[in-house]
Automatic annotation (TrEMBL):
Keywords: Membrane, Transmembrane, Transmembrane helix. It comes from Salicibibacter cibarius. The keyword Membrane applies. The chain crosses the membrane at residues 29-53, 65-83, 95-113, 119-141. This is Uncharacterized protein.
Length: 149
């Protein structure tokens, strides 16, 4: 259990780190390189700083949505892969919560420039909130599927 949690935490820090810990060096380096490219092209670090400083509108204007739309899939794939490689592959249908989170978070990115109930949440915080919704839906779907099979 400890190794799986460690893998998830390192993947949250940076996609590819846990793969390096799991000795999947090529995969880890590739994920890190892809993350850096998407991060730089999407202006992600600038968006994080602006969002945390409360400059949501500026973050929306600085975002390159064509690049950051790709980030949730990369992020949750890296987390799932690290979890699986750390011994989490024994549980059936564990890919469902991660895939659901990637899908719902991508929708969060797509709508992050729009006002929701009169408030623009922005390209960082709406996807973060969406990821929890996606994980919840995914774990619920996994539970239902496990019950039916």
């Amino acid at each position: 259990m400890e190794k799986k949690v460690e893998a998830i935490i390192w993947s949250i820090a940076l996609p590819g780190f846990a793969q390096l810990l799991n000795r999947s060096y090529v995969k880890g380096i590739l994920l890190i390189l892809i993350e850096i490219v998407v991060n730089v092209q999407g202006n992600l670090n600038t968006l994080i700083v602006l969002s945390f400083q409360g400059y949501t509108e500026e973050a929306v204007q600085q975002a390159d949505y064509l690049w950051i739309m790709f980030y949730p899939c990369l992020y949750f794939f890296a987390i799932w892969d690290a979890y699986k490689e750390a011994g989490g592959d024994g549980k059936p249908y564990m890919a469902i919560p991660f895939a659901s989170a990637a899908f719902i978070t991508t929708i969060g990115v797509a709508y992050s420039s729009q006002a929701i109930v009169g408030v623009v949440i922005g390209p960082i915080f709406l996807p973060i909130l969406s990821s929890f919704v996606g994980l919840g839906i995914g774990f619920g779907a996994r539970k239902i599927i496990k019950t039916l099979t």
